[in-house]
Structures are given as C-alpha cells and as structure tokens.
C-alpha cells in the first residue's frame, strides 16, 4: 500500500447563518476554494485525478453533483471529474478517506478532497421535503432527532446543564483566543464579498465565536429539544456556511513533483453505532483507529472531536480518558460553527494548523454522524 500525504489545504472562513456568506452560492464557494488550493500549492491542475466533496443537503444549489460543478467553476480542466458524497456530518472527512484509499491502492495519484455546505441558502433538512422514515426502519429502531439523542447521552452519563454550559463557554473562549493570536490565518482563504448595499468587504474570519459569552448568559437560554431539557442553542453546534479542500497525493508523486507534504494520513476508519443515541460513534471509532495504528491516546498531541452538542465530546472524554487539554484546543463547532458537509475538512485543517503551531506529531480527528456512524482519522506531521 502506498504512502498517502497531505500537501496542503485551505478553507473559507465559516459564516454564521444568514451572515456574510448568505449571498454566496455554495457551488461558487466550493469552486473558489478549489481554485485557491491549486494556486496555493502551485499544482499543475491537469494532474488532478478526481475531486471528491462532501455535502449533506444535496438539493437546489447543492444538487447536480456539486463536486463536478465546483471543479468546473474553479477552472480545472474538463478532464478532471468530480463526485459528491454524503456521510452526514462526516461527509468531508469521508471524502478525505476515499481520496486516501484511491491513492493508497494505486488507482489514483492526486485527489482534491473536501466539502461544502450553505445552511443559509439550503436549510438543514431541505432534502427530506416532508418524507418520513421508512416503517421498516422504525419497526427496528427508535429514530429520534439528534437533539434528543444529545439529551439522552447527557442523561446516560449524568451530565448536568452546568457541565454542558461550562464546556460551551470554554469552547467560545478558546476560539476567541485562537482568533486573537491569528492561529487560523494560514488555513483560511480571504474572500472579497459584496454586502446588500453593494459595498465590497474582505471575509477572512470565522463569524461564530461570541464575545461576551458567559456562564450566566448560557444559563438563561431555553432548552431547544425537550421541555426541562439541558441542550440549547448555546451548548450545541451553530448552523453555518463554509467550504474547505485538501490536496492529497501519494508520497511518490509528491517527490516526483518536488512538492513538500505537511502530513501523512496513517489511519482511517469508519464505524456504525446505535442509531438512536446516534452521536456516541466517536468513542468506538477512536478505539478502532488507535488499535489499527498501533498508537495510544498518550501518543496523540491533538484531538479534534466535533462539538455537535456539548454532551458528545464530554461523553467521549469520559469513555476514553483522554487528556482534556488536548481536546479542541482552538474551540469547536459550538464556537466556530458546523457547516455540515464542510466540517470534516475544517476540523482536519485546524488540527494540522495546531500540530504545526505546537510542533506536535500525531493528531486524531473523529466526527459523530446521522443515523449512528463515525469516522476517525490519524495524521502524522512530516518534520
């Protein structure tokens, strides 16, 4: 099996719902990211074997194989194909996995992988259009809203609202500090946008982090999914817009082209988990990834666990016993936002930036996914 490396990656800043990216089509946004990635790496675009993008709500401006559409918009040659995948919230992480698998097997040499989601222009759930789950499914499993799954996880692990709110508060504080120290600068592509008045502005900073967040303010928010529940807008991931992409190739091809890779992808796994609790998959995915790699939790320098709801990373911490100081050191989706199809790419890029900043060696990324699944990826920094 061939060595798989990440040359580099780039993403848009994450826009809040109906924020700066509200007037930007998702296919145009993904195209801009792909174009910027090619320019950043200096790659000859004719060498790209495929473009694989994740996208959850594949309807409207996100339909028609948005990966192929975005590749064409970006200016890639018409000979470069594209395919769009849906692994729910882990879609762009799975896109990276599929790219790595194609390269490792020898089927491809160079792939652009990532994802996109505009939740302002294509609201979450749009692709369902009132369709209910199959009776053949609901006969076997209790299918509930993810917010209720998050509530049940909190009940299972006996988390209090105070614990969830404290976690959410620290996510905001970490993200604000990361912004103040320009930790995201090298991963974000500045975009020149036009506001409603016709004036242009530069969009280059994630809009999600909320200055002035406090435990007291979080404590005053009403539960979102259950009467007397403890999950609310402040301790759940934000609805967001964004796109990201990474240039992935074989180590052999990188050496041939004279490109210096930043990281190796050394382990990738995906698992299925309880479709009712739904969000506990990262626990088993982490265990499987560590077993497959022969590494331990102690070997990891950074963990990126998607903050779908505060109860998810807290349950992961409790089950794994991982060092909490290594978890989402720059904040997570509670603060930075969660553009569904793009979040896997965002987490990976942020983890790469943090490993560079701290000179760490290994990073583990994992993401809970709809209907009970989870991906996990381990990368190694190339010094």
UniProtKB/TrEMBL annotation:
Q: Which PROSITE patterns match?
A: THIOLASE_2
Q: Name one GO molecular function term.
A: acetyl-CoA C-acyltransferase activity
* Catalytic residues as annotated in Swiss-Prot or TrEMBL: 89, 338, 368
| Segments forming domain Thiolase C-terminal | 260-381
InterPro entries with a match to the protein in the record: Thiolase (IPR002155), Thiolase-like (IPR016039), Thiolase_C (IPR020617), Thiolase_CS (IPR020613), Thiolase_N (IPR020616)
Q: Which residue ranges run through the membrane? A: none
Name the keywords, alphabetized.
Answer: Acyltransferase, Transferase
Matching SUPFAM superfamilies = Thiolase-like
Database matches in Pfam families: Thiolase_C, Thiolase_N
Q: Where do the Thiolase N-terminal domain residues begin and end?
A: 4-251
Return the similarity comment.
Answer: Belongs to the thiolase-like superfamily. Thiolase family.
Q: Which NCBIfam families match?
A: AcCoA-C-Actrans
Q: What is this protein called?
A: Acetyl-CoA acetyltransferase
Taxonomic lineage is: Bacteria, Bacillati, Bacillota, Bacilli, Bacillales
